User: Fold this.
Amino acid sequence: MTNAATSHVVHARAPGKINVFLKVGAVLEDGYHEVATAYQAVSLSEDVRAYPADDFSCEFTGSIDTSGLATDGSNLAIRAARALARRSGYRGGVHLKLEKNVPIAGGMGGGSADAAATLLACDALWGTEATREELLAIAATLGADVPFAFTGGTAVGTGRGDQLSPALAKGQFHWVLALADFGMSTPGVYQELDRHRERHAQDIFPAQAQPTVDANVLQALRAGDARMLAESLHNDLQAPALHLAPGLGKVIELGEENGALAGIVSGSGPTVAFLVADADSALELQVALSASRLHVVRATGPVHGARLVHD
Assistant:
């Protein structure tokens, strides 16, 4: 590949996600778990601006406190940029400005969205002309949720969540998201799930080797039926997340008492996603939860995956 980089800034955007269904299989030999999940990309997104540079660096902007985030080579966006440079033979670097809007360590795939947007932005900035399949292959090496942040929409994820097949979804779903003022470690929540299953080995069914997504979830998405989807929301990581952060249970109760069709911990938490019937219900719930001093935002889904934004 050539070094035919452009000299301007490139702006890319990628969405956060909600796992409307997440079943976790038994732990594998490598320590990971087989999962079956239904992802929905939502309108809370990450914005990445890529500037020409000789080396690799990043900085954060936005309203979210990013003081605890790495800006060195361990940052997922920088890892994404380096992976594309390696794969394409590009010999320069990039400076990334990451505008954070998705909760950090919140179970909504914000870091994965950063990585997906970075791949797209750097490909355009450097003129590497990678195919969509090549970018998706790099995305899969970076983390289980990165390929979905790249494709967006609604999809079923299997394997570690990175083997995607599109799912049909009609219309628009309305969500109200209660954001916590703390993060949760995804590996920590999975470890707590393993301990939870050991503690309750007599009472609960053993984990499936190869879990699948409930057909009712796919039917509700296809029909665009929020009430049907509310009855089918499921997350195996919710019980361990509630064990580690018991206050989340009260948040779910509060939302469901104030008009939510259903509430669910998103991914590994601690964000709680409430599904509501329509935009008016979303606004009413946002007001009610804000009155209880919760930090709340509204979002809709599904939305597109990573894309270039022309400022």
